[in-house]
Amino acid sequence: MHKAAFSIEVGQTPMLPSVCAKTGVPTDGVIRQIFAQVPGWSLLLIFWGIIPFLIAAGFARRKVTVDLPISEQVRRRIHMVDLGSAVGLVVGIGLFAAAAAIGAVELAAGAGVVVLVTLIGGSIARRVVWVSGRLDGDVLWLYGVHPNFARQAGRFARPDLAMRATTDRSGAAILVVGLIAVIAFLLLALLPSR
Q: What are the phi and psi torsion angles at 37 (to 5°)?
């Protein structure tokens, strides 16, 4: 898997090569994509509820919009993945509504499985057919790009980005939240019940 890094200035579009980010073929097409960075500390607010977390993450989030080069072939693949995901969700929600109407618990469980498989499968398929990215300060890291795109993108990148490694802090934040949750669970489990 190749990656490419771009310097991002707020309100400015980075210089991108005119080849498809996924296939590396020359293209004039673009797709608008939003990349966001949510501070790791906002994950700790989950313990106070989902609403405080969403409010803090919404206000503290930094986002940029980038027009990435895309070929028509990849655009069709993305459209098919999105269409398949939408159909799966509609079927799952329809099954759930039917189960609620007739009171069938097994059908409701099956509907939940359909929705869950659709969400997970759609997310994985989207990462396979298109590139993913992460905003890290003033640098946009793109993952899963074609080697030709990565090579040409290197010409547009700042010289110091070639030596800079991505610092993915989201994994560390998730580990901290998970560790706190495990400690809280163990404390509750070890407390004598009255």
A: -130, 120
Tokens 């070890």, located at residue: 190
Residues 154, 167, 67, 1, CA torsion sign: positive
Nearest to 41 by CA among 191, 187, 170: 170
Residue 83 burial (CB count, 10 A) = 10
Q: Given 3-state DSSP classes, what are the helix, strand and coil percentages for the chain, each rounded to the nearest 5?
A: 55, 20, 25
Strand pairing class (62-69; 2-7): unpaired
- 169: nearest Cα among 132, 124, 134, 128: 134
Angstrom distance (rounded) from CA 3 to CA 178:
28
Count CB atoms within 10 A of the CB of residue 152: 17
Of 8, 28, 1, 2, residue with least CA distance to 156 = 8
CA distance 50 to 47: 8
Dihedral angle sign, alpha carbons of residues 77, 64, 142, 71 = positive
Token code pair at residue 99:
């189960």
- pLDDT tens digit sequence for 117-148: 998 999 899 888 999 888 777 778 888 888 88
How much is the pLDDT for 81?
95
